[in-house]
């Protein structure tokens, strides 16, 4: 009988890069991995790592993602506010959507939103074509919605 390992987080590989460096002794080949980790209940993180083989790069990226997890604020199955986030050239727009509309976003942004547990969100990449930049900007936008919600609640308490 095999005991099946229960996974705490859902991991998704966003990108694997082959990195080649010219040295005196020949080519040095390494691999870079970008991973998105989420529990589908409001926690999501991103990890980037490099190693001499793909398996170690992915393992190290998962460890990095666990260190960089954020908790997001959800209103039902969507986000509480519209938000625009920009990191480098990557610019991302996230909007709440009515229940049942699903995740309307492309590529790396969809991976982050699905891993975080959101089900009804509209997302648009407004600038930049980098997958790493899109993932970072999306996570920053989700973090901004949480911060805005906390500020609004604090203002209500203070009057």
Automatic annotation (TrEMBL):
Q: What GO CC terms are in its UniProt record?
A: cytoplasm; small ribosomal subunit
Q: Which organism is it from?
A: Candidatus Woesebacteria bacterium GW2011_GWB1_33_22
Top-down, what is the taxonomic lineage of the species of origin? Bacteria, Candidatus Woeseibacteriota
> Which Gene3D superfamilies does UniProt cross-reference here?
3.30.160.20, 3.30.230.10
Listed name of the protein: Small ribosomal subunit protein uS5
Q: Name one GO biological process term.
A: translation
UniProt keyword annotations, A-Z: Ribonucleoprotein, Ribosomal protein, RNA-binding, rRNA-binding
Q: Where, by residue number, does the polypeptide cross the bilayer?
A: none
Q: Which GO terms describe its molecular function?
A: rRNA binding; structural constituent of ribosome
Per UniProt, residues of the S5 DRBM domain are: 9-72
The family note in this entry says: Belongs to the universal ribosomal protein uS5 family.
- Give the matching Pfam families: Ribosomal_S5 (PF00333), Ribosomal_S5_C (PF03719)
């Amino acid at each position: 009988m095999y005991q099946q390992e229960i996974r705490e987080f859902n991991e998704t590989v966003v990108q694997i890069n082959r990195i080649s460096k010219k040295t005196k002794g020949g080519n040095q080949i390494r691999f870079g991995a970008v991973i998105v980790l989420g529990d589908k209940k409001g926690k999501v993180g991103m990890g980037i790592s490099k190693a001499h083989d793909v398996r170690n790069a992915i393992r190290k990226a998962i460890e990095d993602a666990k260190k960089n997890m954020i908790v997001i604020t959800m209103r039902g199955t969507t986000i509480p506010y519209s938000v625009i986030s920009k990191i480098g050239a990557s610019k991302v727009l996230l909007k709440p959507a009515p229940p049942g509309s699903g995740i309307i976003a492309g590529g790396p942004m969809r991976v982050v939103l699905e891993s975080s547990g959101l089900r009804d969100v509209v997302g648009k990449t407004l600038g930049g074509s980098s997958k790493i930049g899109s993932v970072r900007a999306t996570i920053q936008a989700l973090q901004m919605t949480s911060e805005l919600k906390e500020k609004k609640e604090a203002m209500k308490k203070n009057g």
